[in-house]
């Protein structure tokens, strides 16, 4: 099984606070990893380094050429607030795939507990839990082989949490989930 992403001796500090030192991490295709730590311990920073939005202070990060990486963030992108739920999901795809992927988008929204009527709701009118499900759907839509989750259980009721867990169990993509609980 090939490594999709590999860190070697990764170190990062914020100000004088060392978040991690000489971290070695290998994520292979299909891996399912959970990382638990206190708030402020550097979990989100690590994800930002892994997805390339931040740089580590030291160490090496290698990405396999086959890596198709998506990230589920903690908060909805404000740019999406005036989109409908369906538009926000299809926004993840290249323009030429949006029309042909509409059925798949509708099916994914249904699998995540959204009704056909809700697909026309504006993102700004959705609850926090619905935002989380949308962010999850946006990560799944482009068919990644690795998904990074940043606190995915925030704002989720028990039924939605169980639905997401079931979806994760059946998903082919590997994932790394960070949480403080």
Give the topology, please.
Elements: E1 3-14, E2 17-28, E3 32-36, H1 43-50, E4 58-63, E5 69-72, H2 85-90, H3 95-98, H4 102-111, H5 128-140, E6 146-150, H6 158-170, E7 174-179
Parallel strand pairs: 3-7, 5-6, 6-7
Antiparallel strand pairs: 1-2, 1-4
Q: Strand share of the residues? A: 25-35%
- Spatial shape: globular
List how many beta strands DSSP finds.
7
Q: How are the strands of the largest sheet arranged?
A: 3-7-6-5
| SS element count, helices | 6
CA(first)-CA(last) distance: 30 Å
Give the biggest beta sheet. Answer: 4 strands, parallel
- How much helix, percentage-wise, in residues? 25-40%
Order of helices and strands: EEEHEEHHHHEHE
What integer is the average pLDDT? 91
> Low-confidence segments, ≥5 residues, pLDDT <50?
none
The Cα radius of gyration reads 17 Å
Supply the helix-strand structural class. Answer: alpha/beta
Describe this structure in words.
A 4-stranded parallel sheet has the order 3-7-6-5, with helices on both faces. The chain has a 3-stranded antiparallel sheet with strand order 2-1-4, with no helix packed on it. It contains 6 helices and 7 strands, in the order E-E-E-H-E-E-H-H-H-H-E-H-E. By secondary structure, it is α/β, with parallel strands linked by helices.
């Amino acid at each position: 099984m090939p490594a999709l992403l590999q860190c070697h001796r990764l170190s990062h500090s914020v100000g004088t606070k060392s978040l991690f030192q000489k971290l070695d991490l290998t994520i292979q295709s299909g891996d399912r990893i959970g990382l638990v730590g206190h708030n402020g311990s550097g979990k989100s920073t690590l994800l930002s380094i892994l997805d390339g939005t931040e740089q580590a202070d030291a160490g090496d990060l290698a990405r396999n050429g086959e890596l198709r990486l998506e990230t589920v963030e903690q908060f909805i992108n404000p740019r999406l607030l005036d989109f409908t739920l369906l538009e926000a999901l299809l926004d993840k795809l290249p323009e030429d795939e949006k029309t042909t992927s509409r059925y798949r988008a509708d099916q994914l929204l249904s699998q995540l507990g959204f009704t056909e009527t809700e697909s026309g709701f504006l993102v700004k009118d959705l609850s926090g839990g619905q935002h989380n499900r949308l962010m999850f759907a946006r990560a799944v839509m482009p068919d990644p082989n690795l998904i990074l989750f940043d606190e995915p259980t925030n704002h989720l009721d028990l039924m939605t949490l169980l639905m997401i867990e079931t979806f994760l169990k059946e998903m082919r993509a590997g994932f790394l989930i960070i949480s403080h609980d």
